[in-house]
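Protein modeling request. Please complete all fields; requests missing the sequence field cannot be processed.
Requester role: graduate student
Desired output: 3D structure, C-alpha cell encoding
Chains: 1
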Amino acid sequence: MGITAKELAHRLGLSEAAVSLALNNRSGVSTETKRRVLQAAEEWGYDFTRVTVRRRRNGIVYFIYYRKHGAIVNDNPFFAELTEGVERTCKQRDMRLNVRYLYEEDDLERQLGDIVSADCAGILLLATEMRLQDFAPFEELNVPLVVLDTWLESARRDCVLIDNNQGAFLATDHLIRKIKQQPGYLRSAYEIHNFEQRADGFYRAVRRHGYSSSKCPVHRLTPTIDGAYADMTELLRAGEIPARGYFADNDAIAIGAMKAFRAQGFSVPGDVAVIGFDNVDLCNYCDPALTTVNVPKAYMGAMAVERLLQLMESDHFVPVKLEIQTNLVLRRSV
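Delivered output (334 residues):
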C-alpha cells in the first residue's frame, strides 16, 4: 500500500492542506512546493486517484446564490429552473448538494472559510449580480469552482452563461423586421453583465438594419413586473410617446411595461410591440402572450455541474467560458 497524503505531509514538514493542493495541481501553494510534493509522492508510491475520488464520493457541492441587491436574483422562475437543472444533475451523478445564500453585506471570507473546511468538493457560484470586484473573496478559494450566469473577464475561473449578445440580436432583428421602424429599448435600471451583453446585441441589430444607435429611445425600468409597470406608467403619464416597438432586458420588464401600455390606452402589439428575454412560464399567460428569447435554463445548470465534475476529477486546469445559445419563441406581443 502506497503512502497517504497525511504521511506525505508529515515527511515533508508541510500541512495536509498544502499537500492536497499540490497533488491536485491547485493554486495556493508555490511552484517549488508542488514540485517537491509531486516528486516525493511519485518516489514513495502515492496513489494519485485517492484525493479526487474521495472528494467526489464524500464531498459536498455547494451551490451559492450571491445577492448584491436582490433585484435580479429573487423569486424569478428563471432561477428556479436553473436550480432544478443543478439539483437533477447532481442527483444523477451521485453528488451531494447544499444550497447557500450569501449577501454582499455578509462576512464572506468567514462564511466561505466555513464552507471550504466542511468537506467541500466544489462550488457552483450563481454570480448574476456580481461584479469583478465582488469576486475577490472567491478568487482565493482552493477548491474547484464554476461561475454560473455571468462572465468575470479577468478571473481565472470557469464560467457557464447564456449567449446574451446573440439572443438580444435575434430578438431585435425580429422586432425591426416586424415594425419596420427604429426600435426602442426597455433597459434595466440595475446594471449587470448579462444586461450589458444584451445591450451590445440590441445595438448590433439596430446598426445592421441601418438605423442610428443614438436615436433609439431608451427607458430605464426596474427589472421586476411591478417595478417596470410603475416606472413605465409614470413615464406615460408624464407625456412620453412610446416607440412602435421595444426590446426588453428581461421578461419581467417586458410584462410590466405591456401592462402599463395597455392601462394607458395603447394596444399591444397594435400600437406598441414588445419582446422579452428569458422565456419564463408567465410569458404564456400574460395578455398578450409574450414573444421572447428562450434560454435553456435547466440545461445551463446541468452543464455547470458537468464542468465542475471535470474539474474535481482532473489534475490540470485551464479556465473555459461556456456560452449556451438561445432561440426565439414567437407569440402575440410582436
